[in-house]
Amino acid sequence: MPFGIVAYHCQQSVEKHIKAVLTWYSVPFPRSHDLPELLSLVPSEARVGISGAELSLLNRYSVEVRYPGDWEPVTRSEARDALELARRVRVAVCAALPAP
Question: N vs C: which end of the chain shows fewer Cβ within 10 Å?
Answer without folding.
Answer: C
